[in-house]
Amino acid sequence: MKKFLIAGNWKMNKTESEAEEFIAALKAKGLSKPEQVCVCVPFTDLRTVKKALEGTGIGIGAQNCHFEESGAFTGEVSVPMLKEIGIDYCVIGHSERREYFNETDVSVNKKLKALIQAGITPILCVGESLEIREQGTEQTFVAGQVIADFDGIGIADAAKIVIAYEPIWAIGTGKTATPDQAEEMCAFIRGVLSGIYDNETGDAFIIQYGGSMKPGNAKELLEKKDINGGLIGGASLKVDDFAAIAEAAAGIE
Ligand code: PGA
Description:
Layout: E1 5-9, H1 16-29, E2 37-40, H2 46-52, E3 59-62, H3 79-85, E4 89-92, H4 95-100, H5 105-118, E5 121-126, H6 130-135, H7 138-149, H8 155-158, E6 162-165, H9 179-196, H10 199-204, E7 207-210, H11 215-222, E8 229-232, H12 239-250
Parallel strand pairs: 1-2, 1-8, 2-3, 3-4, 4-5, 5-6, 6-7, 7-8
This protein binds 2-phosphoglycolic acid.
């Protein structure tokens, strides 16, 4: 059976009370496969959302972390701090963090290692800009990200990492990659991983598509062979839309 992870990425949205309201409404939906769903929320919402999700099977994630365990890093949050809250996932290397907060493949790699060591599943984002896509060098670019981000990560740990292929030109723009474009890149990424590790490991990866996924396009994207779910921004802020995407995945064998 195909594996899926439908992950909401709230970005910098929802106060604690708004988060509580959202989770109550999501619970009321009675998702048919909650274990393949998670919400990645702002740090300030983590405790409240964790509590609200108790017993639902729905996972919880953060959207960033620091790679050091503790120390003089004003404003940062460490992996042990997240671990104690009991989170399941952490988004790493989102294009917004790479663009606005100087996230590099070097820091991404350190964060992946820190999370794996703590037993938290990273959701690693990769993807090309419009400029790169127009030059036709998206495969070289994304392969470079994958190779650098996985540097020094052994075969036993590799497939614990969820990958989100997010073409930057499709994020928050309403411009979705076509199912064929998304599949082509997700299959390509799987091939790169099979090359680094082996075919069995490559096949085991959960590779999500992200970028303007919504109820209207989720099914045809998720039906593609190499797409194991979605990292969903805008549509994850609306309970009806997010639940509809989760159900689209739940309906696929
Ligand atoms: P979007 O965002 O669904 O709003 O395009 C996706 C993401 O940035 O993870």
